[in-house]
Each structure stands twice: as C-alpha cells, then as structure tokens.
Fold these 3 entries.
Entry 1:
Amino acid sequence: MNSTNYDSCPECDLLLRSAHPKIGEKAHCPRCGFLLSRPRKQSVERTFALSIAGFILFFPANLLPMVGITILGNANTGILMSGVIALFNEGMVAVAIVVFLASILFPLVHISLSLLISGHLYFNRPNRYLVGWMRWMHHLDEWVMLEVYMLGIIVACVKLMAIAPLKFGWGLYAFIALIIITTMLTSGLDTELFWQRIEQLGKENNLAH
Amino acid sequence: MHTKANALAQGFIRCHDCGCLVKTVDHPSACPRCDSQLHPRRPHSLQRTTAFLFSSFFLYIPANIFPIMTVNQFGAGDPHTIAGGIIELIDSGMIPIGLLVLVASILVPSSKLIGITLLLLCAHFRWQINARRWTVMYRVIAFVGRWSMLDIFMISILVDLVNSGSVQIIAGPAATAFAAVVILTMFAAENFDPRLLWDNQQNL
C-alpha cells in the first residue's frame, strides 16, 4: 500500500518520483533544495559499531572529572552531573532539569536506542518495539545537545582562565571523543534504509507465524 | 489552493515520522509503516507556532533585563546581564569568544523571533513570495535554535566550578527565562509547517 514509486519533499510537498542515489551521491528536492536522501556505506554496521563505542564512552565522559580549577587554594573539579546539582542547589530547578535532559539523559537514551535498533537490524532480529524506538530516536535527535555543551565548556574555560589556573581531566577527553562519535553516528545513519529494513523484518516475522 | 505538483493535491499524505507516502483515498488514520498519526499538514501549525512565539516574546524581556549570573567576590556582588557578559568578554580582549556568545545568545534568539513572526505572517496572509528563499530561512531558523543553549550550559559549568568560600558565581533569574525562550522557540520552529508557504503560492 505504501510502497509507491513516489516520494514527497517534507518541506515543500512536491510530488517526486523516488530517487535512488548511489552511495556518495545526494538527492535534493528540485523545487526547494531540501536534502532528500544521502545513502551511506554500510549504514547498519557502522551505526552499530559507533553506538557500541558511544555507549562505552558515555560512562567515562560522565563520571571522570572534566575540568579542575584552583581558586585561592580551593581546588574544585566539575563533571556533567555536578553542574546540574549546583544549579539545583541554588534553586534554579527548571534550568537544572533542562541541562540534565539535554546533556545527560537525552544523549544516553539516544545512543541506547540507536544501539538497540542497529543491533536488531544487524542480527536480523525482528522486534515489535523497533518502530517505536525509531520514532523516539527521530524525535530526540534535536534535543541531544552535546556539541552545544562543548562550546559552553570552551567559553566557560576562556572566562575562567583569566581568574585561575585550569586543569583538564580525562573526562573532558572522553567527552570530546563522545561528541565525535555521536556526530558520526547521526550523519552516517540512513533513516530511509533503517525504516525499510524494519518494515522488511516485520513482514518476514509475520510470514513466519 | 493547492498547486498541482503538491503531493497532497495528487492524493498523497507524507508521514511525519518515517516519511512514507500514503494514498488519501484509503482514508488512513495511521501510517502503515510506523503507526504514527497521519496529518496532511502539521496539525494546528499556525496556532501552535503563534502560541509558542508569543510566550517566548514575553519571556525574552526578563531574559535580557535581569541578571543571568552574579559574581560574588569577597561579599560584594557583581550582577551580569546577557549583554553585560559579552561586553566584559570583549573589553578584556577575548574578542572571538565575545563574538561567539554575541551570536549565540543575542543575534540567534532575536533573529529567530523575528524570522518566525515573518513566516507566520506570510503563511497567514498568503503573501506571494519566493517560497524557496523563505524555506531556506525556515531551515536556518530550525537549525541554529539549539546553539543558543550555549549560555545556559556555560552558566551551569561556571556555577559548579566557581564555588569557593570567597569567590562564587550564582545563576540569576534571567537564566530560567532565557532557557525557556530557547526551548519555546525550538517548539515554535518545530510546529511550523514550511509546506504552508508553498500551498499559498498561486503562480507555481
């Protein structure tokens, strides 16, 4: 029913004949210029590998100290969570929740979902929750703000360097690696391919029963 | 007023979540592939965008006039507004970082507010415009929105690290308002449907 030979542009609704660009090619909407599809090499395998790496890196990035500072003899180190707690203790509950969601919870959920989805696709295991996970991941995408947080760290460090000496810890390096991995993950994920594979798996599963 | 080339005019609805095309003649309510609700356009797009936009306009005022953080040094408090923090960065010679913060926390939010207002007016009054250019504007607005959170993240780091007995940084009321502005404008951009711009064009 849905496997028509047509596509439509999500931003201008132009009806198009389905384009099947090769790997390395891009398909743009001729009317509004929207990037319609950009197939990636071994998208499932790469997503699976990057998700594993990202999931592992998430823990050192969150648990090891990122930046240390010594002000007038008082040493202090910060991790992602301690910033949230500091805001919470000052009564800025709403801001603390936003920072927690955008820099800790959503990235964790996003990477776990991509691990689950790509893992199921890689091993050809059907699962009735795949569709729901895929939709959740799609909606979370915009709210994972690790790279914005990184800029925040840079600006904060520039401001603090004027006051006191800083020390960068392993947590920061793990965090930078995590950002590189999540960026590669989102840019290498071929959404259309994933949806097709999920649909195919679901059909095979129905036939088997 | 749908132009011929539009998928909707040809009897197709595109699923918001998975992007597959569904024929309208079957009167489907849910997408056959991902089971999400099907809507020809984002539901109540203009009303929702307007609501989010108005809320963020009002919160934008306290976000800019109240201090976003206060530096307590040996008992003396020194409150900073968003603009004050940037001026201080530039004064102390950190011009590139100052410009970065200027773009992220003043230029981006204000141009987003103006841009979404223009998009709404255009869609509502069916202005005949260069729809391609306006769609690009929408795309830019939707992309840059999240980068304004930079200021909020920076404050959470500063508040955490600068917390010794004699020197302390405390977040101010503008932080909550500013975070709300960023999130509400993101919701506004997400709820705006750029296809409405194309639906209104008569000369396509």
Note: Chain A has a mean pLDDT of 90.
Entry 2:
Amino acid sequence: MRVTEVALATSVPPVLRRTGPGGAEAGRDWLAACMASWPAPGWRVLTLNPPEEAPALPPGIEPAPAAPGVAAAYGRPGAWIADALAAACATGAPVVGLVNADILFDLDAGRRAALLDRARGGIVACNRMDVLHASQAEGPFYRYGYDLMLMPRGVAAGLDLTGFAFGVPWWDYWILLDAVLQGVPVAVVQCAGLRHLAHREAWSEPARRRALAVLVGHLAPRRAALGALGLDPVAEAAVDLLMAATPHLGEAYGVEEMMSVAGTRFGMEVVRILERDAWRLA
Amino acid sequence: MTAPWTRRIVVDLLHPVDGSGWHEAELLPGTVGFRWSGPGRLSTLRAPAPPGAGRAEALLVLQPGEAPPDIAVFLNGRPVAAAPRRLGAFGVLDIAWDAAAMAGGTLAEFWFQPARMIQLPAPGQRMRSVGFRLSTLTIEATEDGPEAGSEAAALLLGRRLLAERLPVATGRARLVLSRDGAEMHLEGARLGPTALPRLTVALGGLDDALEVALAPPGGAALRVTLRGGGGLALPGGLSPRDAVLLLRLLAALPEAFGRGVDAAEGALPEVAADWRRRLGALSAAAGVALAVALSDGPDPLAGDPGLGFGWPA
C-alpha cells in the first residue's frame, strides 16, 4: 500500500453555482471536475461537512464530520479551518494542506512532486488562475488569495486558526502571517495547473468583517513582532486602527467602513510581504 | 530545488513605486489595483532584476473590448521586445531581453512610452492626461532572450512625432462583405488633425488590382490603387504631410479589418480571408511607400501642423 504523502482537507459544498459560457449553469460540472482532479497516488483528500450539507462525493474523497458553529458565526453552514487542518494532520501524512472546493487541479506527477518537495521545507501558498470555462488553459492569476496551501505537518500543528471558516476570507492571510511571524518559510506560487472558474465574490461584507475581527484578535498579542516584517507606515497605522476599532464593531458610526478600508489596506501589505518569495511552477 | 521553479519578482503598482510618470494608485472591485501612466508620455519604473537575460509581464487593466495599447518599452536605456496580448479581462505586455541589456547589474530601469495619451477625469477631480493602466510588473530570469535594440532617442522622438504631428486612427470598424467588394465603415477615424466621425472605405477591383475609395459621408472619395506588380498609386494633389497620413492609414487597415471581422456575425470566412489578404498586400505597399517618403521625401512636418487634412473638393 502506498504511503500517504499529502493529506488535503476541504469543505465540498452540496451545491455550487457558477456561470459558464453563454450564461449556462456550470457549477455542478465544475465541482465534479474539481473533486475528480484532487486525488492522486500518495495524495489523500478529506472533506468536512456538517450533517445538513451531505454533498455527493466521488470515490477518493473521504467525508468527515464538521463541528457546529459556522452557520451561527458567519450566516451559512460550513466547516472550521482549524478542524480541517487537524483532520489532515491526523492522517499522519508528512505534508498537509487546505484547498478551496472550487479549485480544479491540472497537476501532473511532476507538478505534484515539485509542490510536495517544496512543501517539505515550508508553506507553499498558491494563487489561483481565473478562467471563464473548463477548457481555458491560460488566464490571469488572482494575487490576493491563496486557494491551495501545503505545509509540513509540524508547521500545521503550530498554527492557531480558531474562528476561521471555509468560504469566508482572511484565514489564508492569517495562516501565512502566523507562519512568517514564526519564521517559517512561505513561498507564494503561481501555477497554471490550479484553475478557478471566475465568479463574483460570494461572501458577505458582514462575514468578511467578522473574519477580519478574528484575524485582528489573533494578531493583537503579536503586534510588536509585526515590526520585524518591514510593513510600510500606512500599513502599520492600518493595523493599529484595526486593533482600536475591532472591539467597537457595530457600536459607533464609521467603524465598519474604517475596518473594511483598513483591512483591505493591511491585506495588500501582507500580499506585498509574502511576494518577497514568489515563484512560478511550470 | 527541482527544475520547474522560476523565481518571480513582483512590482505591484498599488504600492509606492520607484520611478516617475505615474498617477495615484487606484483599486477596482475584486482587488485589482493599478496606476495610470501620465501625465507625461514617458513613465519609468525601477525594480530589482536578475543580472542576465530575462522576461517580464506587464499586466494591464483594460476596459471591456479594449485592445491592448501600443507601448514601446526600454530597459536600461535600450529598446526591448514588447508584445501585447489579451488575457481574460486584462492585457499583458510580454517583455524580453538578453543578458547584455542588464550589463551584469541587478537593478532594471524600465521606460514605458504609450503611443497614445488621452484626457480623463481623475476620480471626482480634474481632467488629467493618461496613457495606460499598469497593475503589476513581474520579472523572471531566462536562459536567453532577444537582443535589445539601440537608438532609443530616435525611437522615443519618432513615436512622439508620429503621435503628436502625424496621428492616424482607424477607430471602430463595421464590415459589409461580398465576393465582389467590401465596405469598411469606420467610426472615430483620424487623419492628422482632422477627425472623421464616419469614413467609408470601399474595396473593389479584380484579383490583380485593388481599388480603394475612402470617403466621408457626402464627400468626395480619395482613390488609391494597388496594381498586381505592387505599384501603389495615391491620388494626386496631396501635400507631403497628407500623403504620409494617408499611407499610415492604409497601413493600419488590415488591423481594423480584423477587428471588424471579430465583431461581425455571419461573415463569410473565405470572403473575409480573401479581402484581408488583399488588404495585407496594400498595407505592405503602403509601408514601403511610407518608408521612402519619410526617408527621402519632402519634410512631412513642414507647414502648419493645425491645418486640416486636404480632402479633395
């Protein structure tokens, strides 16, 4: 029996809606293609879902129960990121990872080996390539999100991801920021083998702000350590604004707008810092 | 590390830039950041780069349906290869150079010179001169690359003079095709200082000759003939400047025709291909005539630059 080299965790939605060419509904086929593309020899894939979701799964995707609470926190059911990463770690695979459920892999054995090789030494954070239909082989990369992450199991075990959920932003930023603050190497990777059917943002602004508040809560005790990363002065000020404003979310005029703008500005800075170690995988 | 990895250096125009000729950073929904080039025609950008041969991708933000702009690129003072293409909603300028262009250094200074500047309002503010919207510049090392050019000053000045003193535009093209003839209806064309809101380009003639008639609504036609042997006959009575303007427009017709074909529904492919081939021959002949005129003809820049195109009565 082949040893599991990589354990990937995700949360497959029961229904995916996407617009294909000519406006046709393409979500079901796209999701099926995504799920079929993930497993490979040595790569094990888990999906965490609450009982009310129960997506139809093809062979090779292992279901696992998701702990409750995501719907209460973010307004729709799903799975906690921390639970997903813990489930991946529990497989005993030396490299574990997270992938968003709408990412299609076009990863041959060479690409998988290269990703695995690099992920043994640190976190590999991959941007997605946006396409308009399944057969499109080239498209622009989305630099402000990391839809596939791979890392050594030991690194994953040292991350605190409490409060983040699939389908809501910021968890990817916090994983990478937390890792960088711990001195873990992070490589930002663009590979044409990670495709995403372009769509409008699916998350709500309140959910985005709540997730941002979670990030700020994690970041606050480490505020002093941020200085070593070389943030620009505006980003430094944005962090301080976020820390001051977050406890008052929903209490006073302008707080939500300030958080949105400061969060966006801080996120841009995180991307800039991470792209100091940027790579392309052929 | 395994071979398929290539290190990337990313310059994001949302952040402060080391260079000049850029307006303030802007952000579109979906976290697409960019800066307009301008207000001057030349924009510069300095970035770390590998010491040898390399390539770069300049990611350009485009409007829906907008063609990637014509931009000349220079690296460390030398013209370098720059090919535009579309990538989804974006445009990409593929830039490449050989090791000599970096001269062993690790700081690359790029110059960008767009062919066209326009006036647009800044968000909620004054009008300003802008060229193109640059989102990111990504730089990678390569094993080899095309040799960088020389005579940057000639290229910079030539492009400026063409843009300011001899501007030509074909505008938007709509086609009416048949086996016996074709019509291109151009909207927003330009011949020097003369704007042509509508211009009809009628194509006809037998296989061994192409006859072209260009006419604004209700106006007399300019008639051009390309004979089988390659001889190009322009209408008489054109000033040296107007002859150069007409040749530049003729040279640009295949590209306009191609855009028209892209937009046309139900165009007969073999008919369109035939007219495009014949326009290609016309463009090549116009290119030669233009080279001769610019090299050895009367000075096309002499005279009043504000004088309109001398359309026949």
Note: Chain B has a mean pLDDT of 92.
Entry 3:
Amino acid sequence: MSENKQAPRAAVGSSTTSPGSDNNDIRRRGFFRWLALGWLAFAAATGGFFIVIIRFLYPNVLFEPPQTFKIGFPDEFSPNSVDTRFKKKHNAWVVRDDESIFALSTTCTHLGCTPNWLLTENKFKCPCHGSGFRITGINFEGPAPRPLERFKIGLLDDGQILVDKTKSYKWEKGEWENKDSFLKV
Amino acid sequence: MSLAALKSVIDAISAPTISFTILTVAFPFFFPPTDWFEKIHRKLGFWRLWTKKGGIIGLLLITAFFVLGYFDKNFNITLTKPDNFPIVLLIYSMFFYIWLGMYKAYQNDERLDAGLKPNEYNDPDDKVLVWPDLVYIEFIALILFQVFLIVWSILVAAPIEEPANPAATPNPSKAPWYFLGLQEMLVYFDPWLAGVVFPTMIILGLMAIPYMDINKKGDGYYTFKERRVGIFIFMYGWIVLWLFLIVIGTFFRGPNWNFFGPFEYWDTHKVVALNNVNLSELFWVKLLAKGLPSNILIRESLGFIAVFVYLFVLPVILIKTKLKGTYETYGPTRFVSLMIFGLGMLALPIKMYLRWAINLKYIVAIPEWFFNI
Amino acid sequence: MEKPDNKKPLLERMGESQVWKSIIRSGVPRTRRQRMHAILGSVFLHLHPARLPKHAVKVGYTWCMGGLSFFLFVNLTITGILLMFYYRPTVEYAFTDIIDLAEQVPLGIMRELHRWTAHAMVLIVWLHMVRVFMTGSYKPPREFNWGVGVILMTLTLLLSFTGYLLPWDQLAIWAVTVGSNMARATPFLGHEGPGAALLAIGDINLIHVGSDVRFALLGGRFVGEATLLRFYVLHCIGIPFIAMIFMAVHFWRIRKDGGISGPL
C-alpha cells in the first residue's frame, strides 16, 4: 500500500520536468489533492460541529438571582460585626470592621461549601472540611488555600450601599487594596 | 468498665495516624511481596488469615465490632444511617471475597508446589452445556439477589432529609460514600490534585495494569505466589488507599471534618489545632529567620526542587541502582508508566505523613495561581 | 396437518406445537443438540457460548459478579423507568414528588429498590473487578476488555452520583455541591484551576465562573434548577446510553478474546 503511494510522488517530480510524460500521474496528483481537501473539509466541519455542541451547553440567559443588590445605609451596620441577612439570597456577608465595610463571598475557597459565622469564636467555619476564616476573610486553619473573596461595593446617589457580585477581589493578588473592594466609613 | 476501656482503646487506634500506620506496616506481612516478608509471614502465622479458621475469625471480629457499635449510643447514630448500610455490606463483602480469593490462591499455590495443575484446570475436551448448567446458576443467583434487595428495601427506608437549602450547609457535608476516599484525600491535597488529577490517574492507572504487568503466570486461576508483587501493589492501593479511606470518611469523620473515634460523641465544638504551614514558610521563616521572598518562584523554589527530585531524579537514580533489573526487563515505556502511577500512588501516604509529622500544608504553595501541591 | 397425539404428555405436545416451535426452533431442550440450539438460537442467551469449560460455571471461580452487575443494571433501568412516571425534575416539585413516591403511590418501596440496587451495583462492580484481578483475567489477550471494564465502573459511579442529586434534599444538594466543586479546580478548564489565568486575551479571562467546565456540568454558577435538569437527563439517558455501548463491547470482547479465562 505505502509503496503505491510513494511511487506516484516520485514520478510527479519527473513529470513536471518532462512535459511529455504520462498523463496518469497528473490525474493522480489532482486526485490526491482533492482527497486531502475533502478530508480537511470533513475535519473542519466535524470540529466546528463539536464547538457548536460545546457552546450549546452555555445558555445566553441565566435565570439566577440578580448579581447586584442594595444592602441599605452604612450606619445600619455596627462596627466589628458580621451581617448575615444577605447570606441566603445573595451568598454574601456584609462585614464592618473599624474603618470599612466590605462584602465577603460565602463560598469557601476550598470546595465551595458555605461556612457559618460563629459569633462566639469570632470566625467563619466551613462544615465540609473545617476551614476557618477570620472576620476579615483571611484563612487561618483547615485546608482552604486562600482567603474568602470580596465583592465590589460602592455607594449609590441615594446613600445606600450597592454590592456588585460580577466583580470580585482576591487578597492574594493584592486586590483588597482596590478602592472598590471596601467602603471607608 | 472493661468495655468502656476497650472502646476507648478502639477510639484511640482508629485515629488515621495510628490505624493507617498499623495497616501499612502490617500489610506486607499479610500479602508478602518478597522472600523476607514471606519468611516472617510463615514464621509468625500471618498466613493463617488465609485459612478457613482465619476467615471465620475475621468475620467474627467484624461482627463483634458492629455489635459493639450497634449497642453504643454514639456509634449507633452513624451506623444506622440508611446510607451507611452499604458501608457495612462493603466491609463484610470485601473482607469475605478478598479472603476467598486468597484462600483459593493458597490452595492453588500448594497444588502448584506439588507439581499439580491449579484447581480450576480441566480437560479442554470435557465441556459442560450452558443450558442448563450455567443458566440455572444465573437464574438462582438473580432470584436470591432480588429477594435480598426487596427485603433490604422493605426494612430500610431510603434517606430523605430537609428540602434542599443552598444557604445552609449541613455539618458535616459528605459526598456519596463511594467518593469518600476522594473527599478524604482532599484533606491532604488541593482540589485540582485530589479531585481532578488523582481520579484521572486512578482510572488511567487501572486501565494500564494489563500493559504494565508483564508477568505471564497466574492467568485464569487464583494464585498468590506467582504474582505476589502485583497483588501486593494492587491490594495496597485498593484496600488501604481506597477502601480504608472510605471507611474513615464514613465512620470517623464528624463535624468540621474532624476525626472522631467510632464510639466518640460528635461534638460540633471539638477544638483541633489546625496550624498547618507551607514548606516555604518552614524554610524561609523558621529555618532562615527571614521574611518570605516576594518573588513567587524564588519563594517556592525549594518545593519545586523537592517535586522535581521526586518525579524526575528519583526514577533515574532507581534505574541506576535498585531497579536496574526491572528497568531492563520492563523497557523504558513500561518503566516510565510504572513510575508515574507508582509515584503518584505513593504521593498520598507521603503527604499524609508529612502533614502528621510536621504539619506541612503545601510543598509548593502558589494560591495566586491556584497551584498548590 | 398432523393430528396431535393425545397420549403424549402436555409439555411434550406444547413443545411440538407450531407456536412453541416458531419461538424456540429446537423444541423443548432435552437432547444435547437441542440444548445447544436453545443457547445459539436465542438473541438473549447467545451472549453465552453453547458450551463452557467446567470451572467457568462454578460460582467459586466467577463469584457470579459480572452477571449480577448486568442484572442490576437491567433492574435499575426498570425501576428507574417506573420512577420517571411520578418524578418531575424541577426545584418546585422534585422533593415533594419523592415524598409522594413513598406515601401516595402503591408499592411505596420503588425508590428504595432503586436506591439500594444502585448502591449494591457499585459494590458488585467493585467485587467483579477484585475477582478479575485475583484470577489474573486481565492478562493478554484480555487487556483491552479490562480497560472497557474500568470505563464501565467509572460510568457506574457517575450514574450513581448523578442520581444522588435527584431527591433534591439537603443530602443531595450538598453531596453534589462538594463533588462538582472539584471541577472548579480542573487545570486550565476550571476557573479556579492552575493555568486557567493563562487562557486570557489581554485583560479578559476566557475561563471564568460562567464559562468553565463546571458551568457546563451544572448549567449555572451554583447547583440549581438547571443542574437538576442536566443531572436528570444525564442520569436517565446520557450515561446509560454510553454505558450500554460499552457493555455491548465488553460482552462481545469476552467471547472474542477466547471466552472466560482459565488455566491452560
């Protein structure tokens, strides 16, 4: 089989130099070109089809709760406390420390369970694998590899606070320095 | 009094640090892979586990453990959870069938020693008809099993808890029991390793077994002697690194994924010091008393070197020294796959002991890139 | 037309009737020849060869685990189809439908049968693997079929895992949350996996929470309505379809690789 394939190719070179040589080679060359093109087109169509199928798995519209929500006025939050009101619906804690208010994601950075705020022990504790986070969101025990993420937070014109979950800030990338990651009070 | 003492002893030795060590150390004496282990195995009577007496005693011990557990008010709670019943079945059936396989293997080994053919051998011309000789066996097995399933279904109601609530994570949250081995690995490894790379390697490694095992003997009959190294490696992975981790995950992991002995009360507020440190912190901060370097690659260089040595230098050293003969018989491709899957498998106990011994969290810790080893 | 011989026993007359003979061509399998025909002529039984070496029919050798695995798969298909008559995979109804299955439907143990059979199948498949390993039956020429078996075992676990979500209770949602969150960490393809940040055009990450491999599995950013539907479809049709193809290959190759293993 392979010999058959090799033979015409060797002959092709000679056929171009000597115009009077066998017609058969030229026809065969043309045939292999069309064959290659055909397979290429087939591969491209199949590949394109698979890409379309994969794209099919990602819908254009998601019926999930809105990603931005109002949480009220800054003075509603008492210093050094964790507000757990928005945990259920929006997966966020609102924390106020000495100088700022920030919104922490309730998704554990280990495997995405929801930790609980333990008031008496002053920490977030994940029930799945025991990761612990301080009130700031910094991890200090258990398998969690990095701190909880913070969501974008800002003041609206009416004085209320708006949390935007489409943008999150990671401590380990130094993003908590970003002005949108906390609200000075 | 003595019962309580017995329970506290069982609680104490159930701790992964102790039970895992006992299993690992005892393992080669029950499945002896070399002549030396074989000698001790015979001398100290470990081989008796693979006799009828050994099997019965083993089953009785398991039963005693469960009876003790059933009448203990703490263990009873975990033991009687409907979804944990399969684990009870798992412990019984795995013990029984591995025992059965080894029992038959030892019988055959004796026959082979005496120059006889294995028990399974029969004259190639002397065949039986599938109808009815096999069909009726299948029919009976099928009916008995169906009866068993119906009885099980009548006696044990399928679990149903509160309706799903995405905001309230139960404590502890467990994966289905057959994945608890993976969840247990998550204690020691990052999700990308324990949840993605290791499962992939387990599947590929299992599929690669027939291509890596070039021992032609022991095909089609139970035998231990002719394939002792192969059986040892497979059974260590299967029993200690998979089934045992499932048992730990089911019975011994309570709230906050803390360890609890089987007879211990699951106290949500049990305080366990979890101050794990990374290799980089050990090296730069504790050993050199400096701050961590700001350059990530320099900070983690020691971890990278350690992983590199483990994965690439160690096999080369082994080729030159201890496994020279193995390398020559197996050839480069087989040897490399043996090394990949073997070192991958060994990484689990190594990381476990590093955690227990020096509270090591990550060998390479780059949370910035989600790259932790 | 031949006149039926009334003196012959009923069973024999039945065996010679046109109806019977149209179904089982060889008549009542009494002779050696008829018995072999009973196996060869039946589309279901011809999974088996007509004759086997003696050790191969012994429960002590095979533990019957492979046959039981297949039986449990059929069993789960039947109970599963019955459950589908009552179960609706939506957040609103899923949980209450499960409750109703126990309380409002006659023979209230159908879900139990399905669930416990599924657990048993995982066990039986594992035991099958242990048996095949212990008898060295993966050795040449059966290497490929062992690989097919490993895939079938993985599919069994995935079937069981996708089914775990369907009751939509706390047990279900959190087991699946823990399990599927590992997909976040898939190298390159998960948004929290190593290397995912490299797949970016300028400042825009190609792999984020709404575009990674976990999203394709869950159909959302978290385990919710879309996840329930996707898992339901995978559980009822997707994975069984793939498993059946592999099973066909598995059974075919047992025969083609020389039948059940045995000593030479």
Note: Residues 279-372 of chain B form one domain.
